[in-house]
Amino acid sequence: MLVIQEPANIKEMISHWKEDGQTVGLVPTMGFLHAGHLSLVKESIIQCDRTVVSIFVNPTQFSPNEDLASYPRDLDKDVALLDKEGVDLIFAPHEENMYAADFCTIVEVGGLSQKLAGQHRPTHFQGVTTVCAKLFNIVQPDKSFFGQKDYQQTIILQQMVKDLNIPTRIIMMPIIREPDGLAMSSRNTYLSPDQRKQSLILSQMVKLAQEIYQGGEEYSEYICQKIKQQIQQYSPLLEIKYITIVDPLTLEPVNKISKGDVLLMEVYVGRTRLYDNHIF
Predict the structure, then answer these.
(1) What is the predicted pLDDT for the residue at 48?
(2) Where do the structural domains in the chain lie, given as residue ranges?
(3) What was the pLDDT predicted at 70?
(4) With contact defined as beta carbons under 8 Å apart, do 193 and 233 qualify?
(5) Could you give the CA distance from residue 152 to residue 38 in angstroms, rounded to a whole number?
(6) Rounded to 10 degrees, what is the CA torsion of 75, 172, 276, 131?
(7) What's the pLDDT at 65?
(8) Which residues are catalytic?
(9) Rounded CA gap, 129 and 60, in Å?
């Protein structure tokens, strides 16, 4: 397994794979890998002849008051984990490898990027789409693997590759959870014991929403209000940003729930941002 920093070197190696008729899977990450990331890697290895994992803490998707400087990093551990999984190549660029001093291009998906998390993080998704557009151009993957936990991000990227005719297929894989139910995230390390305990209510609310819906309730407002009440009563440390049920592609709120609609939740616990969701 190779670890490469220069985009030109990555492109040269992948061009040889493509000439041999091999398919390429890409798993974009910011590192500090956990079982959720590794589930994407495993699926890429199953579906593709070659698997590339990018590790890059992308500064353009962080706002000035966010955790760019403190975001957890452990490249040596990540490399060891990926080597054990059988990854072919790690792309671990430095910032200057991705953004030259005169870099001035932004890729933004209008509409979808301004909804939900985009309302209070107005530059976040344009940072994600810009770096992913670069990664797709560098790696030229046949398939790119993302986690359902970041549902809005994945839908935005699906729209981007469709709009720009980028020849990669976005594959969304299910949420991987900790044994206690918390959706896996590199930021979970920020949580104090008490914060973590109260954060478990998110996965409990996923189950509650599923139970209410299966019990015959199809109005989204009732389910969302029930969830908000439970969080406010039992987990006062959680600041709710949104709890909503939306159309799976437009991300517009729905009144009556149909199969495939999505419950999306974002909360803050102190300065730690947590997401969870459920596809009905």
Answers:
(1) 98
(2) 2-173, 186-279
(3) 85
(4) no
(5) 21
(6) 50
(7) 83
(8) 37
(9) 10
SS3 assignment, position 117: helix
State the Cα–Cα distance between residues 207 and 184, nearest whole angstrom.
17
Residue type, 203: S
Distances (CA, A) of 191 to 180, 187, 271: 14, 8, 9
- Give mean pLDDT in consecutive 10-residue pieces for the chain, a chain of 280 residues: 95 96 98 97 98 97 88 95 98 96 96 97 96 98 98 98 98 97 95 95 98 97 98 95 98 98 96 96
- Exposed (0-12), middle (13-18) or buried (19+): which is 177, by Cβ within 10 Å? middle
Chain mean position to CA 191 = 19
- Burial environment of residue 248 by CB neighbours within 10 A (0 to 12, 13 to 18, 19 or more): middle
Report the b/e string of 181-219 with b at 16+ CB within 10 A: ebbbbbbbebbeeebbebbebbbbbbebbeebbeeeeee
Task: Give the total residue count for the chain.
Answer: 280
Helix 75-85 and helix 35-47: axis angle, to 10°? 40
Q: 């984990």: which residue's tokens?
A: 81
Distance, CA of 62 to CA of 59 (rounded, Å) = 6
Q: Rounded to whole angstroms, how far apart are CA atoms 90 and 65? A: 30
* Fold entry, domain 186-279: Pantoate--beta-alanine Ligase; Chain: A,domain 2 (3.30.1300)
Mean pLDDT of the chain: 96
pLDDT of residue 258: 97
Q: 2-173 adopts what CATH topology? A: Rossmann fold (3.40.50)
pLDDT of residue 267: 97
